[in-house]
Design brief:
alpha+beta; Immunoglobulin-like; 4-stranded antiparallel beta sheet; rod-shaped
Length: about 350
Amino acid sequence: MAGLFLAVCSSFENAEADVSPVTLQTDMTTADIMTDDGGYNSVVATLTLTNTDSTHYRMMEVYLAVNQSGAAWNWKTEFTDSDYEELENNTVALDRDGSFTVKLIIYCVDLCSAGDTHSITVIGNSDPRWYDGGEDSGTTGHPNYGGCQPNCTDHAVPSDLSLSWRNYTNEISIVLTARMAYGSVIGCDAAASTGDNKVYQGNATLWGYTLTNVGWNTDTYQFVSILTSADGQNVGYWTVNPGMADGKELAGQSNASLTAVHAADGVITIVPANNATSGVYNVELTVTSTNGAPTAGCDFDVVVPGLETEEETAADPANETAEEETEEEIQEEPREVPSISLIPALLSIGLLAISRRK
């Protein structure tokens, strides 16, 4: 029995130097990973390990290793089984002609910003699984013992990368791009539809704005408009309508189809109270994301013009000029009157002289 065992062992003396019989496959080669997806911020890749060895070893151990490169080289990764139970020492045991499914979880944390590109490379290091006793004890050329003996024990582990005889599987690479899951931007017009920022008691004024979904995912929004007065004027009877109904949906940037709607134009309707006091008022528009994007908004001032008073009229430079001209005319009038009154006096003197000659 011992001789037969040694003969069998000798036939696999150089097995460790061969290319690994284990191959790796992945369900993705590229992926988008969110930077702000509710704190999860991860992508799960499904890896399939297949052992093509049907004769040499009863079991094959494979240690999975990750290399990273990109904007941040140390993103957190985790290997689990199909039930998301963490693999002990990142190692999988494969039967002859067996396969195993591994979940590789990649987390976008810390140094992870929208637009970053990151590369993950996975490779397996394989090592035959040794058994104690008899015919299950492996082959000759065991790295620790120099040959197979009954009751030998495997002290080598596939994670020991210092061993030169290690058999490497093929590499698989996954390129990830960090994206902002949810985000929105609001741009308010610089002036009302009338071309300025004046509003009038009881009259509706329209003020335009544009809401854009700059996030990667589709989102819906709620709208709130608030009016305030720095002077503490009563704003209770004003009407300020944000112009879009709650629940407005906009497609995310991941949807590149021609029918995707990423932005929407809205109009704020502003109606001052009938007795609104003249002054400056501020309108603030706030848009809240249903899925947790940072609140977006804008604000602008509107002016209720005041009625001109007697003091304002008197202070008007045009009115002051008119008054000055009137005063000058009044002052010059007495000098013009005597020149006009000399005409009848001269006529009287002339008639008197004629009557005396007769």
